[in-house]
Design a protein that fits this description.
Length: 281
Amino acid sequence: MSEFYKEITPAGFGIAIKQKQVLFSKQSPFQKVEIIDSDSELGKILTLDDLMMTTEGDEFYYHEMISHIPMMHHKNPETVLVIGGGDGGTVREVLKHSSVKKVVLCEIDGMVIDACKQYLPTIACGLDDNRVEIKVEDAIAYIKDKKDEFDIVLIDSTDPMGPGEGLFTEEFYTNVKNSLKKGGIVAAQSESPVVNKNEIKKMYKLLKKVFPICAAYTSPIPTYPGGYWAWAYCSVDVEPLSYYADNRAAEITKSCKIYNKEYHYARFALPNYLKELLENC
């Protein structure tokens, strides 16, 4: 009988994936890092503290959404900060934008970076690009003294627990806002609208205190809790859908599996229950 990787959500349901073998399993100073070779179309899987982070088979659902939605709303994104995201998928997508001159990856756990470089090279392939600067340190400390430095900040964090807990505070979001240049944009993963409604409500309450402009966008992710995910779009001065980089989009869409202009615009159309949840934040 095959073994399965299983993840059950607080809502009482979840996913199961047939697994062949565990390729990597170590406890870092921050969390348990595992890479599993699955007996499925998903290929290899990265988990942190036994929670799904990414799979070779569906990683693009997440990485294309956190990257290209905010990037396409900026007229000339040259400097990008990725917080978390040690698997490298978000960095890979950001580097598709020809305007980008520098990407800083700030990941607290170097073991994640090293394991993904070794076992998930199709996801981590951008980490060796000469435009990428890797900082293995706590983003909470890193961002404190940054002022007017980044065009785009992407908060590619784990859930609000363990090493990711401090990335869900008003102080941290304020420091992120201060690190933006004029016209800067933030995108942050903001949990599942299906199984993390309380977490979403807390997060958007904090974000709305800090950012004059705060909106949600959503997309499916097959292996994430509930199969449906949300991201927060935040800025001081750029409304979502107020500008779209058609020239860059024409080039980037060729290498994307789900991203295109029509899909982008549809991401900001929210279901009624999520609209009501966010209106009450």
